[in-house]
């Protein structure tokens, strides 16, 4: 039964298959038996880890295990401050990881909250209220407006029934329901009009249906299963740092062993070399790296919050910075999710309607000239029909009920709509032109209403006014035209000739081609004693008044945001449950769809194999009428092609793809709890443009991470090389263990932390996205680390050797030479840190721009001077005061690595200007090709 196409069955086949009666429903004992057979109508949460196990899992990471080892070594050496610092880093990282994973467990609980708590079911011939969790296949359920659907139902009857399914299907307007069988296979959810799905909401009418699926077998259950099965992607930053940690540890330990062995072979004391080797190992392992990464990400998160983007998972900020594709839901993300009339046609002319959202401000314009309703009889009549044949209410958000007035400017948030979005669009249209329910209340009184239904595709009301009566009708133009005998043309009622019908149809087609949803409006003056007991009687011999074309309009800021993404080499893809024509029009309007770009429907996508999809996925920009499974396939296909994928959305149907994407982005205002819990980033203002800020922030954070990795590793290479070369040359130890540990804690730590908050370079958002497979050492970073590290080591050793040769023999001379080596190493690193701010050289950026870095360098310098000149500290760090000669030698040697390489870079760039990174575009289009 799980794979049954319930929408295709007739009522007789349906009831026979389920073994139930439409008059009496299921007997109580039969319902109990089926409950035992099928299980409760609930969404399972799958296997859950205990909080304790979640916390302990945080200590399995390779880098964490190495840091624990470094903690033990530091403790054994008596370096308790180092040990406490490393231990604090480990605990903080574990707590952050635990919080992130614990939050992820809540996504299915949010999904379960969409289930209705109770339902009205027919049991044993009586209507009873039962817990929704106890519904079983075959139960007859009764629904009315405002009810949440308690299970997947096949409808047996539907009276003016409309369901809001955007959270499940992505379609922006409520769907009209009927009870007739639909003889088609592979229908998208949004086209199964004779079905009602668990978790959706009835916005109008009443319905009676039979339960066909419960629990995890429902469409909502399938999404829950997808969320459970979908593994969250490890971020590029996490992968790179893990690889970096392994490489560094192997290299550092290998070099350290070589230094120890070389020293012993050259006659150095074994115990002294062991202490020096262990100190080098502690210094070489970048135990501060996780802390600096965490701080950099946390500060980035604070900046993001100020830009209305709430980060739920720290590494996701960096991940968004290397996104190459953004897959965006249309409804509520790229568009406002507020149906708006943008065009009207009133017998012989088409008018443009201005204004956005629900604010009753704007108007109608003919070629840029404003049109007043009082001066245009056709427009005035059309607006009257729009306001009268309507059940939606537009009101001020702060008031329970308010008359609509188009007066002083109001913020969009000051107005809210209650009712059907399509009717709301007509209410707002009328209000923009000064007509509202309150202004017409004294003139027109509703006598009768014939609700919209899926067969007639019309709604009509009968109103009385000034001794007369009027039938007002709105509905689908093609069916409405069949009921019209006249047309209001230039303010006069004239016979509806074939020529005029053709003009109306041409106007309708023109609006439809612009992806507008078109409604026709008509009326009839009723005779004094004419009876209108049925819709058939009211909806005949009508006068056609005009057409209203409406659309869920794009957000104002989105087009500029997409253009910025395009300049940054990021492809934007629209994924929606809405109709293909509408999606294509919005995509073209926003600049998403280039010439030559493809649009694919859910049916076409379902017919493709994964291999076929992978071949064309780079050239597809719009996916329409897609299911949650389709969205998941799209994300995975892009990932197989090497893209870093960001997925935005607000509905339940977006949650599996949001979770599977490299970074999932949920809408904070319109988004469901399910999509938020599955996401890494929540947009507090539902503003697509905030994603651009997040991308810039992410790129900046990653570049800053590369900066302090460059600084830390070059410093570590310099320290190890100083010791290694000295041992190979048979020289005494140039640095003592305590001095190495001091450099590691003070000189490396503070400036590296300041690099984590460095300002971005100017061309950051004109570069193409980096590859997810890119090494952390890419773009010559490895060369810069090795070359600067070698120069720092050679210059430090050179200063040590020169001083050692000129100093008196004995312990005093060796102490002076070691102090000079210590000062040279510290100063070389403090100068080098400013070089790390630029991808080119120290001369390409203002060294005073990063005030935190200047302060960190001054602090490190002050601490070094204290070690040199405070008598109480000299015995601890085995230093001696140095004079002007030694200072000059140290500063010259310390400046060579940075300034020599910097001058070489400037001279090289003046001879041959380095080309900027280029973004290739698809032929004929403006969208970047990311192949």
TrEMBL record:
One cellular component (GO) term of this entry: plasma membrane
Documented EC number(s): 7.2.2.10
Protein name, per record: P-type Ca(2+) transporter
Principal location class: membrane
Family statement: Belongs to the cation transport ATPase (P-type) (TC 3.A.3) family. Type IIA subfamily.
Ranges where the Cation-transporting P-type ATPase N-terminal domain occurs: 5-79
Membrane-spanning parts: 59-77, 83-99, 247-265, 271-299, 708-728, 740-760, 781-804, 810-831, 852-872, 884-908
PANTHER family from the UniProt entry: P-TYPE ATPASE, SODIUM/POTASSIUM-TRANSPORTING ATPASE SUBUNIT ALPHA
GO molecular function: ATP binding; ATP hydrolysis activity; metal ion binding; P-type calcium transporter activity; P-type sodium:potassium-exchanging transporter activity
Enzyme class, broadest EC rank: translocase
Gene Ontology biological-process entries: intracellular potassium ion homeostasis; intracellular sodium ion homeostasis; potassium ion import across plasma membrane; proton transmembrane transport; sodium ion export across plasma membrane
Gene3D superfamilies per UniProt: Calcium-transporting ATPase, cytoplasmic domain N (3.40.1110.10), Calcium-transporting ATPase, cytoplasmic transduction domain A (2.70.150.10), Calcium-transporting ATPase, transmembrane domain (1.20.1110.10), HAD superfamily/HAD-like (3.40.50.1000)
Subcellular location per the Swiss-Prot or TrEMBL entry: Cell membrane
Organism placement in taxonomy: Bacteria, Bacillati, Bacillota, Bacilli, Bacillales
Residue numbers spanned by region Disordered: 908-931
């Amino acid at each position: 039964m799980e794979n049954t196409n319930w929408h295709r069955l007739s009522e007789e086949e349906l009831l026979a298959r389920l073994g139930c009666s439409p008059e009496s429903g299921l007997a109580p004992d039969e319902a109990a038996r089926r409950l035992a057979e099928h299980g409760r109508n609930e969404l399972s949460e799958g296997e859950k880890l205990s909080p304790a196990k979640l916390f302990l899992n945080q200590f399995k990471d390779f880098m964490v295990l190495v840091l624990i080892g470094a903690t033990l070594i530091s403790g054994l050496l008596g370096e308790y401050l180092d040990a406490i610092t490393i231990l604090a880093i480990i605990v903080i990282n574990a707590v952050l990881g635990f919080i992130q994973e614990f939050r992820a467990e809540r996504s299915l609980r949010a999904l379960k909250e969409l289930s209705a708590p109770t339902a009205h079911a027919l049991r044993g011939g009586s209507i009873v209220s039962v817990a929704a969790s106890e519904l079983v296949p075959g139960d007859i359920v009764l629904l009315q407006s405002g009810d949440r659907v308690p299970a997947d139902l096949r409808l047996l009857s539907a009276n003016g029934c409309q369901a809001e399914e955007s959270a499940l299907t992505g379609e922006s307007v409520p769907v009209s329901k009927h009870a007739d069988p639909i003889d088609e296979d592979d229908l998208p959810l949004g086209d199964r009009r004779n079905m009602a799905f668990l978790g959706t909401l009835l916005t109008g009418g009443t319905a009676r249906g039979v339960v066909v699926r419960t629990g995890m077998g429902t469409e909502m259950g399938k999404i829950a299963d997808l969320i459970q099965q979908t593994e969250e992607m490890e971020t590029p930053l996490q992968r790179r740092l893990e690889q970096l940690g392994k490489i560094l540890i192997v290299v550092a330990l290998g070099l350290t062993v070589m230094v120890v062995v070389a020293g012993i072979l050259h006659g150095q004391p074994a115990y002294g070399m062991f202490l020096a080797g262990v100190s080098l190992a502690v210094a070489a392992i970048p135990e501060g790296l996780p802390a600096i990464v965490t701080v950099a990400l946390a500060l980035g998160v604070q900046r993001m919050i100020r830009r209305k983007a709430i980060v739920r998972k720290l590494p996701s900020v960096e991940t968004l910075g290397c996104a190459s594709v953004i897959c965006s839901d249309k409804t509520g993300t790229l568009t406002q999710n507020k149906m708006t009339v943008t065009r009207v046609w009133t017998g012989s002319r088409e008018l443009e309607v201005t204004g956005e959202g629900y604010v009753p401000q704007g108007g109608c314009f003919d070629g840029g000239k404003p049109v007043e309703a009082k001066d245009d009889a056709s427009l005035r009549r059309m607006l009257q029909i729009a306001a009268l044949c309507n059940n939606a209410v537009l009101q001020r958000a702060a008031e329970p009920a308010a008359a609509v007035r188009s007066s002083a400017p109001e913020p969009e948030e000051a107005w809210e709509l209650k009712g059907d979005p399509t009717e709301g669009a007509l209410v707002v249209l009328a209000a923009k032109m000064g007509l509202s329910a309150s202004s017409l209340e004294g003139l027109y009184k509703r006598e009768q209403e014939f609700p919209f239904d899926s067969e007639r595709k019309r709604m009509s009301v009968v109103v009385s006014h000034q001794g007369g009566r009027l039938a007002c009708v709105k509905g689908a133009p093609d069916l409405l035209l069949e009921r019209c005998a006249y047309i209001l043309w230039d303010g006069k009622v004239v016979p509806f000739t074939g020529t005029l019908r053709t003009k109306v149809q041409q106007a309708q087609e023109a609006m439809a081609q612009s992806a507008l949803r078109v409604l026709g409006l008509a009326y009839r003056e009723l005779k004094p004693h004419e009876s209108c007991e049925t819709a058939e009687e009211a909806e005949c011999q009508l006068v056609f008044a005009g057409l209203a074309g409406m659309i869920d309009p794009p957000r104002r800021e989105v087009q500029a945001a997409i253009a910025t993404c395009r300049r940054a080499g990021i492809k934007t893809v629209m994924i929606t449950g809405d109709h293909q024509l509408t999606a294509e029009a919005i995509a073209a309007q926003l600049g998403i769809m280039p010439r030559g770009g493809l649009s694919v429907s859910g049916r076409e996508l379902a017919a493709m194999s994964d291999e076929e999809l992978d071949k064309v996925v780079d050239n597809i920009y719009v996916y329409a009428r897609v299911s949650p499974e389709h969205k998941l396939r799209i994300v995975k296909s892009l990932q197989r092609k090497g893209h870093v994928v960001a997925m935005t959305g607000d509905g339940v149907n977006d949650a599996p793809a949001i979770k599977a994407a490299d970074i999932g982005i949920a809408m904070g205002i319109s988004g469901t709890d399910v999509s938020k819990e599955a996401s890494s980033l929540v947009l507090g203002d539902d503003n697509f443009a905030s994603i651009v800020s997040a991308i810039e922030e992410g790129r900046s954070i990653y570049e800053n991470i590369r900066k302090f990795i460059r600084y830390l590793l070059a410093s570590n290479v310099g320290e190890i090389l100083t010791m290694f070369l000295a041992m190979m040359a048979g020289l005494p130890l140039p640095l003592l263990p305590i001095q190495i540990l001091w450099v590691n804690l003070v000189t490396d730590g503070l400036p590296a932390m300041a690099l984590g908050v460095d300002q971005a370079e100017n061309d950051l958002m004109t570069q193409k996205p980096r590859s997810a497979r890119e090494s952390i050492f890419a773009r010559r970073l490895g060369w810069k680390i090795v070359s600067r590290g070698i120069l720092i080591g050679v210059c430090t050793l050179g200063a040590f050797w020169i001083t050692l040769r000129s100093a008196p023999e004995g312990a005093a001379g060796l102490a002076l030479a070691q102090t000079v080596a210590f000062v040279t190493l510290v100063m070389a690193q403090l100068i080098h840190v400013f070089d790390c701010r630029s991808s080119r050289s120290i001369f390409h950026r203002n060294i005073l721009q990063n005030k935190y870095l200047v302060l960190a360098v001054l602090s490190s310098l002050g601490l070094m001077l204290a070690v040199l000149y405070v008598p109480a500290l000299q015995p601890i760090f085995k230093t001696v005061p140095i004079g002007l000669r030694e200072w000059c030698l140290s500063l010259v040697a310390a400046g060579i690595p940075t300034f020599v390489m910097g001058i070489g870079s400037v001279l090289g760039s003046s001879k041959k200007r380095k080309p900027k990174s280029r973004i290739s575009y698809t032929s004929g289009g403006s969208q970047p090709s990311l192949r």
